[in-house]
Amino acid sequence: MARVKYIDPEFRRALEGISPVVRKEVGYSFDIAKRINDILVARHWSQADLARATGKKTPLVTRWLSGTHNFTIRTIAEIETALGAPILNVSTAKVHFRRA
Q: What ranges in 1-100 are assigned the alpha helix state H?
């Protein structure tokens, strides 16, 4: 993807004002939506197919795939169950913290 050579200074300031937490949250939402879409493409499923499999309405599935939906763990579990494929991969490695 080509890098943008010019960004309006006002727009740049607005982007710089976005907190790291919000950036991470939006990134996760887009990653989840992309993972769901990748599974749909691999299975030759439409959004309507996923809606039927989850018992939801197609406009809701469209929101899921927009990349801006705030997924609950329950919703992710429902989608994973309907697709028969994992969406999230949570590491189970033990983390060791040092006390200060």
A: 9-16, 20-43, 47-54, 58-64, 73-83
Does the global pTM surpass 0.70? Answer: yes
Coil vs helix vs strand at 31: helix
Q: Residue 29 has which token pair? A: 């939402």
- Rg of the chain over Cα atoms, rounded to whole angstroms, equals 18
∠35-37-41 over CA atoms, to 5°? 120
Q: Which two tokens stand for residue 88?
A: 């999230």
Taking only the tens of pLDDT, the chain with its 100 residues reads 566 676 788 888 887 888 889 889 889 999 999 999 999 999 999 999 999 999 999 999 999 999 889 999 999 999 999 999 999 988 777 777 777 6
Q: Which CATH class is domain 20-83?
A: mainly alpha
Tokens representing 55?
């018992």
